[in-house]
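Trying the structure run again after the queue cleared.
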Amino acid sequence: MPEVVARLEATAGVIGRRSNEAAEPEELVHEERNEWISSGKPLIPAAVLVPLVVRENGLSVMLTKRTEHLNNHAGQISFPGGRVDDSDRDAQHTALRETEEEVGLHAKHINIVGELDEYIVGTGYLVNPIIGVIEPPFELTPHEGEVAEIFEAPLEFLIEPENMKRHAREFDGIKRHYFAITWEEYFIWGATAGMLRNLSQRLLEE
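Done. Tokens:
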């Protein structure tokens, strides 16, 4: 864990902006690219927690599977988080508040060690991923209306570049390109996979 934290601290303050654009082929025509990147439309600020859990066999990443009835991202794998409220002090406050609301984990269990690049989501959100380290013991209580399941996947697997694949599918008649990672029965795709790819680059690239 100390090496991971050191790598994250070394890149602290170097915050860029990403989207699914990195998964798009270079020859893609402008009309088929993510409209939120270049349209100038106002983005809705949001934040998520990227929870790294300390286990005996190494670090794991805590993820949630969203319930099927939600209006946005139903059934998808995601980090705990949500839109920034007017009462939130900053993105870190948003991430910690949403984490407690969604999975029942209090901020006292979370040591913030950095953040990733902002990520533009296809639904119009600008997400700030905050990285936190969690050491057991702790208890979780999933929000019945939002979280169908909480699980952990090995950090080593999720940041392995060979496990990140490019995919494409149609949304509203337009083909969209994105990264995805398959771990056991879980298909982690879209913004969550994009953020994990960013984490991978932070930890593995020289």
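The chain has five helices and twelve strands. Worth checking whether this holds up in the mutant runs.
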